Amino acid sequence: MELRKFRHILPPLLIFLSSVFIFSCMSPVPQNEINEEPLIRVLIDRLPPYGKIEFKSKGTFTVIGGSLFGKAIENRIEIKANESGLVINDSPSETDTIEIYSSSTISYNGIEYPGIFRVVLTNGYIYLINVLPLEQYLECVVPSEMPATWSIEALKAQAITSRTYALYSIKNSKNILFDVYASYKSQVYKGLRNLHPKSTRAVIDTRGLVITHKDEIIPAFFHATSGGFIEDSSLLLDKSLPYLKPSVDNFSKFNYRSRWDTTISTREFSKIIFGSENITIKEIIIPYRLPSGSVKEVNIIGITKNGEEISNTISVHKLRELIPSILSPKFSVELKDKVIKFSGYGWGHGVGLSQWGSKEMAEQGYNYREIIKFYFKDTDITRLY
């Protein structure tokens, strides 16, 4: 499938960029007012205001903003910051916000991106935000989140889930600059790097379809594999939602990383938890578990060199962030000699759609609607545009 690129002359460009600016500054619209494809703002990077930022393109750049409005630049843009704002190729822009358009794709850190880039200097950082149509974003997200070689029905289920998650994020974003991260914090987005005809077809065939509950777009969480048990939404949110309830998932019991274990030395663990290797780990306590067996927090007891007992209670999300080899909140822990062993099941938080479970369901003949209905109870699939 031929890669679609923006190729416009300047007047349509200015119209397009004006619409981008309007969309980016507006408050999120209610779901019942979404009747056409929206734009999405993806945070690609956040950098300190020193050093330089470089964009490349095979086409011609056009800079929109400040004193450089409409300036055409060939092939390469270098951005720095000073006390008066952003500096483009050594020319002061006299503004803290610019937008960069190219007649081709835009390359940053070796990755090509569609759409435009908004560069914002604020709160001591430079934010690089990729703004593009939602469906084009999804064509890049789906093969970054799920292997494009998998069944088309699993890919369609992922496309609808990712679209729903993105629209929910647009509607409920608490950040005025962007809607989603480009990482696992939201959905993995690697520009055009993983684009594939099969996953693109899954996005096109499900265009505008989202998951709703009582006519509202839901927070459509997903993860790699549940390991056999879907988690309650209260693990991620402050409340339990009727369509994200705990349930048995037989489709995820025996697939990739449904069972795992990892070890870490007590010295390394002590340094991570207490900031020092000289604290002896005495005990690791799991105060309580959710019905699925998931851990919400861990209490670590240590002994200092002076014999003083200290403790640190840490959430399971923070623990997994500090030790990525702990693949899920569903684990047991064993402290033996100078080694700590974590043994668990599932990969990811376990809430919502299981990607490996979707693969198994598709291979057994289930279609994307049946997959979504299995993982998101009592929901509807609604076409918004």
Instruction: Please describe the biggest sheet, giving its number of strands, its sense, and whether it closes into a barrel.
Output: 11 strands, mixed
Give the overall average pLDDT: 90
Amino-to-carboxy terminus distance = 23 Å
How many H/I helices? 8
Beta-strand percentage range: 25-35%
Write down the domain tally: 3
Task: Pick out the low-confidence regions.
Answer: 1-31
Description:
This protein has 385 residues and is of the alpha+beta class. It folds into 3 domains: 10-133, no CATH class; 135-237 and 351-383, no CATH class; 259-345, no CATH class. The chain is 24% helix and 33% strand. Helix 2 (134-145) crosses helix 3 (152-172).
Describe this protein with a few key phrases.
24 strands; single chain; 3 domains; 8 helices; three-stranded antiparallel beta sheet; disordered N terminus; 24% helix; alpha+beta; eleven-stranded mixed beta sheet; 385 residues
Topology:
Layout: H1 10-25, E1 39-47, E2 53-64, E3 71-82, E4 85-88, E5 91-92, E6 97-102, E7 106-108, E8 111-113, E9 116-122, E10 125-133, H2 134-145, H3 152-172, E11 180-181, H4 197-205, E12 209-213, E13 216-217, E14 222-223, E15 229-230, E16 247-248, E17 259-265, H5 266-274, E18 280-285, E19 297-303, E20 309-315, H6 316-322, E21 331-336, E22 339-345, E23 353-354, H7 355-363, H8 368-375, E24 380-383
Parallel strand pairs: 1-11, 14-23
Antiparallel strand pairs: 1-10, 2-3, 2-6, 2-7, 3-4, 4-5, 6-9, 7-8, 9-10, 12-13, 12-24, 15-16, 17-22, 18-19, 19-20, 21-22
